[in-house]
Design brief:
single chain, alpha/beta, Rossmann fold, 2 domains, eight-stranded mixed beta sheet, 16 strands, about 35% helix, elongated, disordered C terminus
Length: about 450
């Protein structure tokens, strides 16, 4: 590629171009585009460009519209003459798809640049092609108009996605072969999965890092450091469509529904720890989860809120013990609970080396991980557990815990810690209150 060639080769290439060619080069998208930004060949109806934030999806959509409406000369007709531009709101269509830095106007050469008619909410090209603006919030607005092309942006976050998409399909009826381009960051929504499953759909994909040359280095460094290897990062940075595992004890939708923005007042707080079998680079993570409980009223009314995932990776015993004690101090926890199946009394010894006076309880697993997790999952089904923000890595593990076992890599250490906390705060005390003769293991 010319961009990767030595300066001398680049200069030789540019010197060999005419003045007209030099002026047109910035608008020759095929020359600059990344592979995922170019439409696949074949007889497709829908092209889905799925990628991470900043992967170049908007630019690809805008350039596709240009390629559809522009002819060889500024006044020559293109393949399409009636285009629908659909975003979540009309403001987003205007500010992102049309006037944005990667929008249609910014991509268009001066002699082919369309005119924005604000009163009619449409773009008009010199050759007579027209692109009309629509909001996905108003699917009925697509009744009546008809098109031979459409650009749909961020479909996966539309609240009325299924209705708006259906109305568009009825309107896309002009020309010999009407087509549509969808640019979106993926989400686990039915409308997107149905589109991808359609035989007439083609797809290209790229992570955020594919477009690193056009992104601020500080942005990439920050988001990668913060969201690497989390469910949110895989969705928003890697651009992957994350679906629920078959037989999962927790679903993506259910976890989204249980999120709260502010911490409620709680009666007790526990820090639960699932220590790794070994220390160092080869070890699993050490699951450290902070959970609070509201224990007013009858036991069946007790509720919990997951406050923090303080888990650490590849930590030595002293490191994970220090992290757990720090979390307990940070949240003024009532107790630290640690699984002792692997370490026995050594777990308590390591913890007390960091804080000799900490309230501590060792718990021993007598049942498998799934059997222990199922009662905790039932609390979520009853709407009795809430999540604070920032729990992406924990939630990723939760969605891979199934009735047949854990489907992820390594051990579900974060989930184990969560389960121990819920058992200590709600499940075991609740059983003790309702059946006093039942002896609980301490």
């Amino acid at each position: 590629m010319i961009a990767s060639a030595p300066i001398a080769a680049q200069s030789e290439f540019l010197d060999g171009l005419s003045e007209e060619a030099l002026l047109g080069l910035p608008y020759l998208f095929e020359f600059w585009a990344m592979e995922h930004q170019l439409p696949p060949g074949g007889d497709w109806r829908t092209w889905v460009i799925m990628g991470g934030r900043g992967a170049g999806k908007t630019r690809a959509g805008a350039e596709w519209v240009r390629a559809e409406v522009e002819g060889n000369m500024p006044l020559d007709p293109g393949r399409s003459r009636r285009v629908a531009l659909i975003g979540e709101t009309q403001d987003q269509v205007r500010e992102v798809m049309i006037f944005g830095e990667s929008g249609i106007l910014a991509c268009s050469p001066p002699d082919r640049r369309p005119v924005w008619e604000a009163g009619r909410k449409r773009l008009v090209w010199p050759n007579g092609a027209v692109a009309q603006v629509f909001s996905a919030h108003e699917p009925e607005g697509l009744r009546g108009p008809q098109f031979d092309a459409a650009w749909v942006d961020e479909l996966a976050k539309w609240k009325k996605g299924g209705e708006a998409w259906d109305m568009l399909q009825f309107a896309l009826r002009l020309g010999d072969h009407p087509r549509q381009c969808v640019t979106t960051t993926p989400r686990n929504v039915a409308v997107l999965k149905d589109i991808l499953a359609n035989p007439s759909t083609v797809q290209t994909h790229a992570p955020t890092s594919a477009n690193r040359a056009n992104l601020a280095r500080s942005f990439l460094d920050e988001v990668v450091a913060r969201y690497h290897d989390t469910r949110l990062g895989r969705q928003e940075l890697d651009g992957l469509l994350l679906e629920d595992a078959e037989g999962a004890l927790w679903s993506i939708g259910a976890l989204e529904a249980c999120k709260v923005a502010e911490r409620p007042e709680v009666s007790r707080i526990v820090v639960a720890v699932d220590p790794p079998v070994t220390g160092g680079k080869a070890s699993d993570d050490c699951g450290i989860v902070v959970v609070g409980a509201i224990t007013t009223g009858e036991p069946k009314e007790w509720r919990a809120v997951v406050l923090e995932d303080a888990s650490v990776s590849a930590a030595s015993p002293h490191q994970w013990a220090s992290a757990a004690v720090a979390a307990a101090r940070r949240w003024k926890a009532d107790r630290l609970v640690a699984e002792v199946n692997q370490g026995g009394d050594l777990v308590e010894t390591v913890v007390r080396q960091v804080d000799p006076l900490i309230a501590y309880r060792g718990v021993h697993a007598t049942r498998g991980k799934v059997a222990r997790a199922e009662p905790a999952a039932a609390l979520y089904e009853q709407g009795r557990v809430a999540h604070m923000p920032g729990l992406g890595a924990l939630e990723e593990q939760m969605c891979r815990m199934t009735t047949a076992g854990y489907e992820g890599a390594g051990s579900p250490d974060r989930v184990d810690a969560l389960v121990w906390a819920l058992h200590d705060l709600i499940l075991e005390p609740g059983v003790a209150r309702m059946a006093p003769k039942v002896r609980t293991l301490r």
